[in-house]
Amino acid sequence: MTLLADTSSRLLAALERGESLPARWYTDPGITEREIAQVFRKSWNYVGPLAHLAEIGDYVTGYAGGVPVAVVRNENGLAGFVNVCRHRRHEVMKGRGNAKSLQCGYHAWTYDLTGGLRRVPRSTSEPNFNLADFPLLPIRAEALGPFVFVNLDPDAPSAASLYGPVLGLIAESGVILDTLVHYSREEWRSNANWKTMLENYLECYHCAVAHPGFNAAIDVRPDVYTLKTHGYFSSQSGQVRPAALAGKSKVELYDVAGAVTQSQYHFLWPNVTININPGFPNLSIDVWTPDGPNATKGLSEQFFGPGVSEDFAKSLVAFNKQVAAEDDALTDSVQRGLLGGIPDTGRFLTNSEHLVIHFQKMIVEAVGGS
C-alpha cells in the first residue's frame, strides 16, 4: 500500500480544521517504517538516568529507531556508540553496568571505553587486518538535566535547544531534579499504535470519564487544567483537589499531600513523557516505541526524592499502573476501530485536543505524504 494519496499540505490543512489523520496512518506497516527512518533515527532517544553513568566505565544500553545503542562514561565524559560489533553485528553490551572494556560476547572482539578496537582473537594471522579500521561507530550522547539521550543524526539540534525549558517547568513543581533517586524500571507492551497511545496521553478530555482515581486527585476541569505547546515539547498541568488533600475523596488514593502540589505531564518529541504527581517529590519517565503498526513496546522508570517511604512509593506506582491500565483499555479499543477503517478520519475538539493536533502536524512534517 502506498503511504498516502494525500499530500502533506492537504493533511496539514485538514488537521488545522480539526480533522484527524486517516486510519491507515495507524495501521499501515509502510508508514511505521517511514516513521522509524524519518522520526526516530533523526530525533533524541532517551536511554537512561545520568546517575547510572557517574563513574568511569559505567554504561547503559538502549535503542534508537531500532538501532542498538550504548552510552559509556570514559575519561572524556559521555560517549555514545552504535552498540553493534564490527565483526558479525552482534550487540556488544547488554543492560546497564560498569566495565573496564567493551567486549562482544560472540567472538570476544574487545573495544576500549572510547570505542577503539583493541583485541581480536586470531587477528595476528589475518592478512591486511588493522584494528584501527574497525572502531565502534560513534553517535551523539547528551545529558538533559539528570537524563541521557542519544541521536543518530549528526546534524540534529542539541537536546538542550529542543527541550531545555522543560527543566525550569519541572523545578516549578517542587521536584528538585538533582536529588532524584532511581526507584524502578519496567518494560511493557500494548496492543495499539504508538501514536494512538501518545495521542491519548496528550489530552485530558477523557480524564473525568475514564480515570476516576486521577480525576479524584487532580482538578481536570478545562478552565484550570492547562495544556501548552513549546515547539518540540508540550506540557499539561493541574492542581491537586482540596478534597483529596483533606482525605475526603470518594475514591481511595495514595497520599497526595506533600511538597509537590502541582501535577505536570510533559511530552518530549517524539516519544518520551515525563510525569509528576502531587505529594512526596516524584517523577516518572515513559518511552513509547513502535512494535509494528499495531503494537507499542516501552519502558517506565520511576524516581523519587530522597527519603521516600516504601509505602508511598508502592502506592504511587500502583496509582500510575491503574491509570495506565485504564488508558490501555481505551487505546486498544481505538486501535480496533482504526483497523476497521470506517470512518477513515475523526474530528477533534480543537480547544481540548490541540496538543494532539500539534503532535499529528509534527508527524506529517517529519514523514510527509506520498
From TrEMBL:
Any one GO molecular function term: dioxygenase activity
Keyword Protein biosynthesis: no
Metal-binding as UniProt keyword: yes
Residue intervals of the Rieske domain: 48-150
Entry-linked CDD domains: Rieske_RO_Alpha_N (cd03469)
Pfam families associated with the record: Rieske, Ring_hydroxyl_A
Keywords per UniProt: 2Fe-2S, Dioxygenase, Iron, Iron-sulfur, Metal-binding, NAD, Oxidoreductase
Cofactor annotation: Fe cation
Record-linked SUPFAM superfamilies: Bet v1-like (SSF55961), ISP domain (SSF50022)
Name of protein: Aromatic ring-hydroxylating dioxygenase subunit alpha
Organism encoding this protein: Reyranella aquatilis
Organism classification: Bacteria, Pseudomonadati, Pseudomonadota, Alphaproteobacteria, Hyphomicrobiales
